[in-house]
Amino acid sequence: MIEDFKDIEYLKSGNERQKLAYAEIKKIQILEKLKEYNPILTGTIPIGIDLPESDLDIICYCKDHLSFSVFLQQEFSHKQGFKVYATTQNQTICTIAEFKSGSFLFEIFGQSIPTERQNAYRHMIIENRILLEKGAKFKEEIIALKCSGIKTEPAFAKLLGLNGNPYVELLKLDNKHSAQ
């Protein structure tokens, strides 16, 4: 069981793709470069429900989006397919950089919300807990749904029988778990 997703050492003893991800992350020193932004690797690769095309999502806490964008350009603009842009999600400004390194697509996602409170991290923690509780068959069913084109959170919602917005409903499971 993974105790601390904030330290990627767990990837070294994971599945083959997790080991490759660990090697690429270390090779390009991305977490070290992003250190002042409290980076955390999130998404499907850390919890072992990724597909071959899944990217490496790194969330960051950035208070100043302009300086974060400039920093990302300075550090990663030489990478294949690099782009940086701003968008808004849930009334929150996000700065996103994408590029390819090795066999992985990286997505760096910055919000002015501490990383441990960002939805990407919270979803991953909740999904990991559910995977541990429900076991291997449930995990296989999630991966099968993802292979059929269903995104991660909707796949969990479908198997758990959650109605409404799957991204919101999953977060409610965290509140229920916290209250117990």
What does the model show?
With 180 residues, the chain is of the alpha+beta class. Helix content is 44%, strand content 21%. A five-stranded mixed sheet has the order 1-2-5-4-3, with helices on both faces. The radius of gyration is 16 Å and the shape is globular.
Describe the protein's topology.
Elements: H1 16-28, H2 30-33, E1 40-42, E2 56-61, H3 65-76, E3 80-89, E4 92-101, E5 104-111, H4 119-134, H5 136-147, H6 152-160, H7 166-179
Parallel strand pairs: 2-5
Antiparallel strand pairs: 1-2, 3-4, 4-5
Helix pairs in contact: 4-7, 5-6, 6-7
Which labels suit this protein?
single chain, 180 residues, alpha+beta, 5-stranded mixed beta sheet, 5 strands
Summarize the structure.
With 180 residues, this protein is an alpha+beta fold.
Note the beta-strand portion.
15-25%
Q: On the 0-100 scale, what is the average pLDDT?
A: 93
C-alpha end-to-end distance: 21 Å
Strand order of the largest sheet: 1-2-5-4-3
Radius of gyration (CA) equals 16 Å
Q: How many helical stretches?
A: 7
Largest sheet: 5 strands, mixed
Give the topology string: H per helix, E per strand.
Answer: HHEEHEEEHHHH
Query: What does the overall shape look like?
Result: globular
- How many distinct beta strands? 5
Percent in helix: 40-55%
* Class from helix and strand fractions: alpha+beta
Low-confidence stretches: none
